[in-house]
Amino acid sequence: MSSEKYIGLDVHQATISVAVMDSTGKLIMESILENKASTILEFLAGLRGPLSVTFEEGAWAAWKALGFNLTVGGSFDAAFGRAFAWRVLDLNYSHSWVSEVHSISASNGLQLRPRVVLRVK
């Protein structure tokens, strides 16, 4: 079983509602955080394993507290028919404009991993 965690953030002006699910879809944690970069980074630093994060925000979100992130990447697949492929290389680079918190810099990230791809049409 994968140790990857899926984190959903509902961003409001003063707070962020957080839900964390494991790789099976089971809800393992819920929390309400202060809308500050340092609080968000401290929360994420406490989680172990690969993390996938998504967020929803309204027009009043405090963007200065969150910062901005840009991710680019690509992959190379070895296809074994139409439905199955082995993703030999999946490479992503991300850069964010969030300041360092407790000697943790989240400004640059590089992710390299193989995957299995199942295409369903």
Order of helices and strands: EEEHEHEEE
Strand content: over 45%
Architecture (CATH level 2) name of the largest domain = 2-Layer Sandwich
Low-confidence stretches: 60-64
At CATH level 3, the topology of the largest domain is: Nucleotidyltransferase, domain 5
Structurally, the number of domains stands at 2
* Helical coverage, percent range: 10-25%
Largest sheet: 4 strands, mixed
Average pLDDT confidence is 77
Structural class of the secondary structure composition?
Answer: mainly beta
Strand line-up of the largest beta sheet: 3-2-1-4
Look at the structure and give the CATH class of the largest domain.
Alpha Beta
Global Rg: 17 Å
Please provide the count of β strands. 7
The end-to-end distance, rounded to whole angstroms, is: 26 Å
Helix count equals 2
Structure characteristics:
mainly beta, Nucleotidyltransferase, domain 5, 4-stranded mixed β-sheet, 3-stranded antiparallel β-sheet, 2 helices, 7 strands, globular
